[in-house]
Amino acid sequence: MHVKTGKPEFDNLIPLVRGFLEKDILDVVIDGQKIRGYRSPDSRAIWLRDYSDMIRAIRYFEKDLQSTIRHFAETQSRNGRIFDYFTTFPEKFPCEKENWTKYVRVPVEADVEYRFIKAAWISWQATGDDEFIKELLPCFENALSYIMNSWYWDEEKFLVKRPYTIDSWDFAYTAGKHSWLQFQIDDNTFWGYMHGDNSGYYEAFSIMSEWYTYFGENKKAEIWRFKAERIKKSLNAVCWNGKYYTHFVKISQVTIAGVDESCQLSLSNPMNINRGVTTGEMAKSIIEEYQKRKKDSGSFAEWFSINPPFPDGIFGDEKLVAGAYCNGGIMPLVGGELARAAFENGFEKYGVKILKQYYDLISQSGETYLWYFPDGTHSSVETSTSPEATPTDGWGSGAMLYAFIEGLVGVQDKHKEFKNIRLSPKWEPAGIKEAEAEIDYPASGAYVKYKYLYSGNSIKLEVEGSTENIDIELYLPENRKAVSNKIIGGEWMRTSEYKSDNNYFRCNIKKTRSIFELTVKLSRQ
């Protein structure tokens, strides 16, 4: 897997992120079975939350994309609940030295089950293993049944609810009724709707519909599609405030002095865009809000976990000051999601800018952290609530690689094994006239390889790989329009169109040979 442009910020990003991920590998043996997972940046454990996002990058380097998911399935409870994480290593030094096999579910978390399904979807895309998914479909059904038949579900609103946490984080506000971080649900719990949970379940419901359609179970596919559309409609009716998603829409009557939840921009906003619950106008509004807050905040980056943050320490730990960790810290995880959303919604140069800023951040130090203070100081053990703060954060770096490959390089797998892809390279906004890219899945051997050349009067794209159906979308240079096109090596159907806010040439190609070449002639508008 490689990208070649002649620009180090693009050519070196893949090996840099791969280096971080290789240091995050966590191999464990449980019940005699070898499990390969990837550790969280602040804990020597395999958290499903982190893994389900990291696998978007891991799939391009790793062959074993099933053992971790299978283990979460094998340890699923009878009622469908999934664990947050497992580990075989001592966690709390120096007081804990026991290398137990430990499983943890954090009760205030409402997002674990959709992440289980999303991780399996990414695994399936890379491996193409239908039998693996057929085997686990009952587990997925049980996981979603657990969410929709438990204290997390509001049947009237058709929405997931959770205790009052900072976005999707794992401790709740208690108004001082608990001595430290509160991970439990009790009589003092304040309930509400967090938008990111619901966009996650929209995506999970949609995935279930896709699988059932693929396996020929159309009735079940229709049921899950109906649920997906219903939760999206409810989410946008309840949580959208006209500019972005309100951080926490309260069910319980609770007021925190100095906090207006409707003004807080929290980290799931760009994720919502990438999960498909927003319209184009909604996505545009969210992205513009991030740009505005970058100017207003004075922060070195706008990748806020939440902005504005909560008052210092009100969640029970004095380290959770404004600008630290999930209370306003700057997270590459958010930056990657924001860049991916930008590339898809007419902010291509902004997406390039984010990727370049991240490259500058990591190339100078050779390190990447889960979060940074707004002044650019990276997290540390002393400033974190967790026992570790490793400089090889795979969660955030993986999100940046996700934005790079699917956004800038423009290779998006729409089904599995690259058989049906969208190819939409954005090299022109990055100032790149010539590029080569090869993206592959080691787990299956599937790959996509292309050469891109813009010569002033034409764009030439040479493609080969495992693909059977390609939706091509070429970004046209400013003041240029497509006047003709020619393809060699395949049958094609032209469906080119143009947007008022972006200039793109579009066509669909059904591949009949291993290599084809598309040339689009340009003229001035």
Count of DSSP-assigned helices: 13
Unreliable residue runs: none
Query: What is the number of strand segments?
Result: 23
Shape: globular
What's the story with the biggest beta sheet?
6 strands, antiparallel
- How widely separated are the two ends? 37 Å
- State the secondary-structure class: alpha+beta
The Rg value, from CA coordinates, equals 23 Å
Give helix % range: 25-40%
| CATH secondary-structure class of the largest domain | Mainly Alpha
What name is given to the CATH topology of the largest domain? Glycosyltransferase
Number of domains: 2
Q: Look at the structure and give the mean pLDDT.
A: 94
CATH 2nd-level architecture of the largest domain? Alpha/alpha barrel
Structural account:
This protein is globular. By secondary structure, it is of the alpha+beta class. Helix 11 (332-344) runs parallel beside helix 13. The chain has a 6-stranded antiparallel β-sheet with strand order 1-16-17-18-23-20, with no helix packed on it. A 5-stranded mixed β-sheet has the order 14-15-19-22-21. It has 2 domains: 2-409, Alpha/alpha barrel (Glycosyltransferase); 420-524, Maltose phosphorylase, domain 3, CATH 2.60.420.10. The chain has helices at 8-11, 13-23, 48-58, 67-74, 112-127, 130-148, 195-214, 218-238, 268-275, 280-297, 332-344, 348-365, 394-409; strands at 2-4, 25-30, 33-38, 46-47, 85-87, 102-104, 153-154, 159-160, 162-163, 191-193, 249-250, 265-266, 306-307, 411-413, 420-423, 434-440, 447-454, 458-465, 469-475, 480-488, 490-494, 504-511, 515-524.
